Amino acid sequence: RRQAMEPPQQLVQVATLQGHDEPRVWHVAWSPSGHTLASCAADRAIRLWAEDGDRAWACVAILTDGHQRTVRRVSWAPCGSLLASCSFDGTAMIWRCEDGVFDCLASLEGHDNEVKAVAWSPSGSFVATCGRDKSVWVWEAEDEAYEVAAVLHSHGADVKDIVWHPTDDVLASASYDDSLKIITQDGDDWRCAATLLGHASTVWGLAFSADGAHIVSCSDDRS
């Protein structure tokens, strides 16, 4: 029987990853295996990092032939071989890794301007994007093709963030309109099932608890 390990008394920095050409790195995301870290930045690049023995980290790939402006967010598919990215150029892209080489599999176009977030569903069947155009898009992934499943205009302002429920195909979004929306699938359609109010200013981010029973949000109202 394995005994529970005592939690560490403090976190210790083990590495500093440098390489992006611009000082603003917008987002990082661990692959499902935990072996690769993806980062994206204002230099329009996506970098993939991996441990190279003895706690030394190295950049193993640089993706620069996709987006034309700042890359705002990256998200791994549950399978670990697909990576989604989104950019201020108004697009999201799907990257496929084969034998350690990443290639652009698809470009998801439709937003009027900056795409602020992208996220894979836990099933891997859907990709969601949101943007400055006040919309949330749901894309269905099937046989390496990505079709628009829904475009929702539930928010009254810039949509800042989106997250999926950890086990179900349920989506939550946060916006400059001070609200959160819960988006669910209804047959072949997607709809806003609930609006969560309470913040007095922009809702910047949100996250589901590990069991999906709760959702936490943070706002410009300092709460």
UniProtKB/TrEMBL annotation:
Protein name: Cytosolic iron-sulfur protein assembly protein CIAO1 homolog
Keyword field: WD repeat
Pfam family, one: WD40
Listed PROSITE patterns: WD_REPEATS_2, WD_REPEATS_REGION
Swiss-Prot/TrEMBL WD repeat ranges: 25-49, 64-95, 108-149, 152-182, 196-223
Origin: domain of life: Eukaryota
Organism encoding this protein: Emiliania huxleyi (Coccolithophore)
GO cellular component, one term: cytosolic [4Fe-4S] assembly targeting complex
Membrane-spanning intervals of the chain: none
GO process terms (BP): iron-sulfur cluster assembly
InterPro entries reported in the protein's UniProt record: WD40/YVTN_repeat-like_dom_sf (IPR015943), WD40_repeat_dom_sf (IPR036322), WD40_rpt (IPR001680)
